[in-house]
From TrEMBL, chains A, B:
Region (Disordered): 1-20, 54-82
A Gene Ontology BP annotation from the UniProt entry: L-histidine biosynthetic process
Gene Ontology MF term list: magnesium ion binding; phosphoribosyl-AMP cyclohydrolase activity; phosphoribosyl-ATP diphosphatase activity; zinc ion binding
Recorded catalytic activity of this chain's protein: 1-(5-phospho-beta-D-ribosyl)-5'-AMP + H2O = 1-(5-phospho-beta-D-ribosyl)-5-[(5-phospho-beta-D-ribosylamino)methylideneamino]imidazole-4-carboxamide
Residues the record lists as binding Mg(2+): D87, D89, D91
Domain Phosphoribosyl-AMP cyclohydrolase: 40-113
Required co-factors: Mg(2+); Zn(2+)
UniProt name for this protein: Phosphoribosyl-AMP cyclohydrolase
Organism: Candidatus Halobonum tyrrellensis G22
InterPro entries xrefs: PRA-CH, PRib_AMP_CycHydrolase_dom, PRib_AMP_CycHydrolase_sf
Length: 133, 133
């Protein structure tokens, strides 16, 4: 099958055709399946989404390292993906996950652990110095 | 106060210094304050964030129209903002909101009303034909 045909039939064979746009990336929000807490926002490219769907473990594309990033590969704080949702414009993803440990490299359960006023509102669940060398 | 000084003191006077990057935009996730449901993902620039904080009503920057967008200004489906959170890298926002009606122009409560497999999982709460002319 040619690449063009594969693209055309993606909706039928693979569900919703995600619009990765010019950058090749879409924002992907991770939400705790049990508590509903929004854990983090990162970016996914087509490869990261495919790996997520294939493995059931959350994958993103690291913009700073420009590479595929399996969440928790270093820290052990993996995300088991229960469901991947796509928004109405098909240009944003929602990973509904079971989070092991904390999502944030700061040791917090959620990366959204501060208000924009600077108040700490999130729970700290691990010591980052003990996890990241 | 000069613009430069204002920028330097922003962290002290206005809380966390949000990193709007080269594009001037950050993704902003809206979450239902009561149910925890992730309602939508849009983008905010500095003006939209300031207007949100000033008014307590969710504002975004429409990329398609390239203008400030008060959510619900047309549909009446406004978002009253209880809290604005910022993530660890200060380049993504979380609006915790009381949503009137539905967030999605399709009539669904949430824009994330489909799985990436194409299954409908979201609740439809209004008829878009009756809301948008």
């Amino acid at each position: 099958m040619s690449a063009a045909n594969e693209e055309e039939t993606r909706t039928d064979t693979d569900g919703v055709a995600v619009d990765f746009g010019d950058s090749g990336l879409v924002p992907a929000v991770a939400q705790d399946a049990e508590t509903g807490e929004v854990l983090m926002l990162a970016y996914a490219d087509r490869e990261a989404l495919e790996r997520t769907r294939e493995t059931g473990r959350a994958h993103y594309h690291s913009r700073s390292r420009d590479e595929l990033w399996e969440k928790g590969a270093t820290s052990g704080h993996t995300q088991s993906v229960e469901e991947v949702r796509v928004d109405c414009d098909a240009d944003a993803l929602l990973y509904v996950v079971d989070q092991t440990g904390g999502a944030c490299h700061t040791g917090h359960r959620s990366c959204f652990h501060r208000t924009v006023d600077g108040d700490e509102v999130g729970e700290r669940v691990f010591d980052p110095d003990a996890v990241y060398e």
